[in-house]
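How it folds:
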Amino acid sequence: MKQINLLAELEDLVGAFKSNLMKYKKALLFLCLIVLQSCVDKKVNTVDTKSSLKTYSTNWKPLFKKNSLEGWHYFQDDGNKSGWTVKDGVFTFTSENASGEGDKSLLSDKDYTSFVIYFEWKVSPGSNSGFFWGVKEDSKYEFPYVTGPEIQILDLGLNDETLDKTTIAGGLYGLAAPKKIVTKPANEWNNYLITIDQEKNYGNVVHNGVDIVTFPLRGNAWEKMLEGTKFVNCVDEWKYCEFGKFKTGKISIQDHPGIISFRNMKIKELYANQK
């Protein structure tokens, strides 16, 4: 009888131990999650965009005219492309009104090398676009993105668990994901402050005041990012490409289905006599 009681007590003790162990595990897991989130939050830096613009208060050059596309042209324009309109300094691409063959992205007339650029953008539900630099214009290149890297512009509503994180708004498309999603919903204005510094081999994106991604522009670290992406053997994807090869080139804003708007675009070149 005593043995039975001892076994019963032992079973009760084991049961209590298991129950407490599960509680401790849950508490420990919860504590770990708090610490991890704290570490993530510390890595995401906020930036006062207005203060940053004041830092570069001299030598800013506006890139948009109030009611003209002056300073810009359609990619490989043959005179038959349309889709972009300008009103009160807002550049808007409306795909259903577009005409002509081929890519209808806008390219700057001027070439740029190292710069800081600021602009605001918004997209209609389901739309996306992009900002490119280092774009070369030649009949052998089918699209701006076969030469120019892209900072993604994307409707927040398109984000889901299946989406490649490098294609979220603010990411270096296909290569580097943003540290945090800070995109505003469709039809609301967002802003980017983008730095492309060829001298320092440094690229950076501040999205709505949050520093979300930093990346190299060339060298071993750049080549490492390219590994396993479609940009490595890009001739398999497109007829001809030289992705990310050019330090100097056009900047571009992309056409895509839907309605895409840009405003308040200004640029500051970082070094004199750039080539």
Notes: Confidence is low (pLDDT under 50) at residues 21-42. The first helix runs from residue 2 to 43. The chain is about 20% helix and 30% strand. The two ends are 95 Å apart (CA to CA).
